[in-house]
Design a protein that fits this description.
The chain is of the alpha+beta class. 16% of the residues lie in helices and 29% in strands.
Length: 76
């Protein structure tokens, strides 16, 4: 479509990739709920170090946001 721009993405690597917002969606499926993140998340060094793989989490649901925090495994 004319006049429509594609979403801008930060280049992978560097400080910009660490803080660049990524797209995601919250899915209300028939088999439960899910959070789908942009595949570019795997290029984020903070994600790779602290979140990759299966991690126990706690979820806080608020009026304007859903907060996901890691639990257990670390002496935080």
């Amino acid at each position: 479509m004319r006049g429509r721009r594609s979403p801008r993405r930060a280049p992978s690597g560097g400080a910009g990739a660490r803080n660049a917002p990524l797209e995601g969606t919250f899915d209300h499926g028939e088999e439960g709920f899910g959070l789908w993140l942009d595949p570019a998340i795997q290029d984020n060094p903070v994600y790779a170090e602290h979140w990759a793989g299966h991690r126990p989490i706690e979820v806080a649901v608020e009026e304007d946001r859903i907060v996901i925090r890691r639990v257990g495994g670390d002496d935080e």
